[in-house]
Amino acid sequence: MRITVLAVGTRMPGWVVTGIDTYRKRLPPHIKLEIVEISPGVRAARAPVAAAMEKEAEQLLKRAARADRVIALDERGKQWRSTGLAERMRGWQDEAADVAMLIGGADGLTDECRNRADAVWSLSQLTLPHALVRVVLAEQIYRASTILQGHPYHRE
Predict the structure, then answer these.
(1) What is the tens place of the pLDDT at every residue in 98-154?
(2) Which of these CATH numbers, 2.60.120.200, 3.40.50.970, 3.40.1280.10, 3.40.630.30, describes 2-149?
(3) CA distances (Å), 55 to each of 2, 49, 61, 62, 75, in order?
(4) At residue 46, does pLDDT exceed 80?
């Protein structure tokens, strides 16, 4: 199973890359985690934000087009427990699905991205920096994999 995180924003700080790599290396060999950075749309004083968001959405949806499942990360989505993510991952594994997870830019995702998604997931009601979301997401994917393996990493 391949999980591709499509994230608006480039040039993440070193701690983000280190954090993601820490969890990616721990994943079992049958789960591949890839991060694809999407350049943010240009936000200028006179240009509407919607234009930048549309450009981001176009790139996100183009890259997600081949995925079997699309998950939009958005604060308006439904919160999942770690065990709920594990159950979803079990289904994706059974289907040998390629999953694309969308992380929007500074102004979030467009309605088009949310409408295209098979699920809209909120990591928290808190507003999180996009760099931190990448690390949290990598950790949760790893945690879900340990739940499926019966590994004691996750305690409930």
Answers:
(1) 999 999 998 999 999 999 999 999 999 888 898 999 999 999 999 999 999 999 898
(2) 3.40.1280.10
(3) 25, 10, 10, 11, 21
(4) no
Pairing of strands 2-8, 69-79: unpaired
Give every CB contact of residue 60 below 8 A, 6+ residues apart in sequence. Answer: 6, 8, 38, 102, 104, 109, 113
Burial of 29: CB neighbours in 10 Å, binned 0-12, 13-18, 19+ = exposed
- 139 vs 16, 27, 40, 145, CA distance in Å? 12, 10, 24, 10
Across the beta sheet with 2-8, what order do the strands follow? 32-38, 2-8, 98-103, 69-79, 119-122
- Reported pTM: 0.93
